[in-house]
From TrEMBL:
Pfam families: DUF6029. Residues 1-21 form the signal peptide. The keyword Signal applies. This is Outer membrane insertion signal domain protein. Keywords: Signal.
Amino acid sequence: MLRKISLLTLFAAGISTASLAQDIDKGYLTGSFETNTNYYANDGKTNATVPDGHFGSNNYLKLDYYKSKFAIGVQLEAYAPALVGYPNELEKAKLTNYYVSWTDDDFSITAGSFYEQFGSGLLFRAWEDRALGLNNAIMGARFTYNYKDLVSVKAIWGMPRFGMEYSDTQVRGADISFSLSNLLKWQKTSLSLEASALNRTFKEIPVDLEEEGGKSYNNGFSGRINLERSGFSMKAEYVDAGNKFYENPRYGSSEQEENFFLKKRGNAQLLELGYNRNGLGINLTGRRLEWMDNKILYGNGSTSNLINYVPAMCTQYTYMLTTLHPYTSMTSWLSGNHISSGEMGAQLDVYYNFKRGTAIGGKRGMKVHANFSTYYTLDEEKSLKAGQMLFRDFSIDIEKQWSRDFKMLFLYSAQEKSTSYGANKNTMVQNIFVTDMQYKFTPKLSARMELQYLLTHEEEKDWMAALLEINFAPKWSIYGSDMYNHGSTKIHYYNAGVSYAKSRTRVALSYGRFKAGYICSGGVCRTIPAYTGANLSITTSF
């Protein structure tokens, strides 16, 4: 426990030193500090995970100094140890990210750690998401150049971060964007053509793979077109992710399965169509993925071992029961006799804002949002033929401001998900109902209540959940929630907490019981075990 307190004291001292430096230097310094610390309690009801020492603590200190066109920054991370469910490679304390950069009007150059993305990220994305325990920053160099808003170029080289270290894998890439509309001086239309190239070179690959013709490098390419005019938008992208090699789960089962490794070629197609005008928003997205799991290290199954961004393209829910069984994208699946090369599907989002004074909008208007998404396995490689259903969701939510003080949202979601990752036709079906109500008693006192119900015929049967949150603006907030499975397990997953915010600092303390499942951020998920305990969270910035 003393070691954990010392680490927190070190972080706090760093913030104080940085604040003093800001006062005496002509440049300016910004920073942030975040700590997320859990005490894990024994819970015989759920057999919750309890690590040695009962503690877990994730801590981050980030400092950035700016002077004119020059910037320098560092990030210190400390895991003492990492919270339960985070990747095992996150451990101890280390200065993980550091960089120096120069940014002019038309170009920039960065040496050290940096984040970057090509297009939608299907080919390449380096980013940080602390909720997922993911940080695959590149240690190397980046150069960007913009010529008269006609041509924009990015070039990168470096080694991706994996855990607390930078890997031996090297990535080299370039991205170019050409604005045809700026060249032709179109006023009402925006049209750009883009292309990317990426090389990954592994330090070593298995000897058996090399003997079967496997290479220690991989080349990928993508092409994109972006169009916007009069409220209409279109984005199209094609990705060739190059050759991949996978361990053959059917090796030795027949004469045709004599190779230990399977050679596959990754590719993806993405099409987004949108319209937004006069209170109406329509977005249609279609995507096909085939062998699109781009890894930092060969043969490592960690959730943080990725160098591209392939989110689930469906509604990203935040309510408790809507996130019990979230969908995660199928980039590939090899297990036993089941081999799946990817997925194909689409989602349709429709928004409409009924204006004030209309028959449906009434005195204060009304917002309606509907979404339909569905995804299937690829029945055959290199084809558009759909196989087994992976996921389907239809949802509608209606938000209405009934009076100056009372607002309510109603959500319905019908979800169907494969229980075998498309290996067979078995699916689980659940219908979820949510009512979210908010009432403002005074300018400083408000209350929010959630009532949720999940109806299903699956093994766990029905769930119900409720949350009550009371806010004393602008500083205090308290809440209590419970999620109860009254169908089979008869377990209450309760949680209660209080938070205090002042200026740019927020402190929160809570205690609760959490179900094994998933935590998702931006359409990417990781699994978490069941646990019970207390949490202290502190975030501050300056």
